[in-house]
Amino acid sequence: MATLASNISLAKTNSTSRRRGTFRIGSILAYLVLSLAAIITIFPVAWMIVSSLKPGNEIAATPLGLDIHTLSFNNYVALLSEVPIWVGFQNTLIVLLVQGGATMLLCPLAGFAFAKFEFRGKRFFFNFVLSTMMLPAIAMIVPLLLEMGSLNWVDSYQGLIAPGLVNAFAIFLMRQQMAEIPDELLEAAKVDGCTPFGMYWRIVVPLMRPALAALAILTFLGIYNDFVWPVIITQSDNMQTLQVMLSNLATQINNSSPGTTGHDAWGMIMAASTLATVPVLVLFIALQRQFISGMLAGSVKG
User: Fold this and answer.
1) Is the domain covering 83-247 a CATH 3.40.50.2300 domain?
2) 124 with 135: CB under 8 angstroms?
3) Residue 297 has pLDDT above 80, yes or no
4) What does 89-130 look like in DSSP terms, one character per residue?
5) Distance CA 185, CA 194 (A)
6) Which DSSP string corresponds to the chain?
7) Which terminal CB of the chain, N or C, has fewer other CB atoms within 10 Å?
């Protein structure tokens, strides 16, 4: 009996050891794959930053080389002195403040109405909002351009901002997140005499902070990286957003400095791209925890 018990115990120990060994090998492989994916993702950004500090001829001669003795901020100095890139930042900031502010104000309110109130035509209007998400953005460009032309809003802030004031995806995202809020909380607030907007501001907004942070990041990225509509609606250099200005940067560099070689232009382009990347990195690093928790909210039900 004792021998049988010891054999069973030994078999269990061996089985446990094999499972632990398999788990460790799996963990090591997972870390290796994730590390490789991180390197592949980070490498282009790191190369861009390093190239922005290198002379143009060195970028062309040894794109992957690095000589710390040649690193300098000459590309940034030349860029800021020869190209009005701050005009692109200014126009993008104006669009972000107005269009992004309208999205953050109106879309959560619409999502709150669709999630927690009953009214005539609710299902029809919500399905209509969802149907607009199925339309490819390219199909709306010509009608929007004709509309902006009839309003004399071409090459203006109104034309840049108006078509994106309300976002169907943002309404859908907020509605799905707010549907998870218990109705009992809102009923208790209603009994205490709270108005609908008071319920939204005092109860819903504090509970929705992670989701609102996620929406803020998605809205920021959507507006900041938008290229197709700004390049169509703007005509003058003074109205170009940052992404449009980056696409024409080589031409602007050659126009402002006719003697600039192609190599030097690439150095300034890398510098401009680095400057354009900084706000995105800062925002995501500052709000990454809220973004992840906001996107996962409601994905697991207890």
Assistant:
1) no
2) no
3) no
4) HHHHHHHIIIIIHHHHHHHHHHHHHHHH---TTHHHHHHHHH
5) 11
6) -HHHHHHHHHHHHHHHHHHHHHHHHHHHHHHHHHHHHHHHHHHHHHHHHHHHTS-HHHHHH-TT---GGG--SHHHHHHHHHS-HHHHHHHHHHHIIIIIHHHHHHHHHHHHHHHH---TTHHHHHHHHHHHHTS-GGGGHHHHHHHHHHTT-TTSHHHHHGGGSS-HHHHHHHHHHHTTS-HHHHHHHHHTT--HHHHIIIIIHHHTHHHHHHHHHHHHHHHHT--HHHHHH--SGGG--HHHHHHTHHHHHHHH-TT--HHHHHHHHHHHHHHHHHHHHHHHHHHHHHHHHHHHTTSS--
7) C
**For position 301, what pLDDT does the model report?**
45
User: Does residue 16 or residue 106 have the better pLDDT?
Assistant: 106
Task: Please name the amino acid found at residue 153.
Answer: W
Nearest Cα neighbor of 78 from 215, 272, 221, 293 is 272
Model confidence at 168, pLDDT cuts 50, 70, 90, reads: very high
What lies within 8 Å, CB to CB, of 264 at 6+ separation is 55, 56, 78, 253
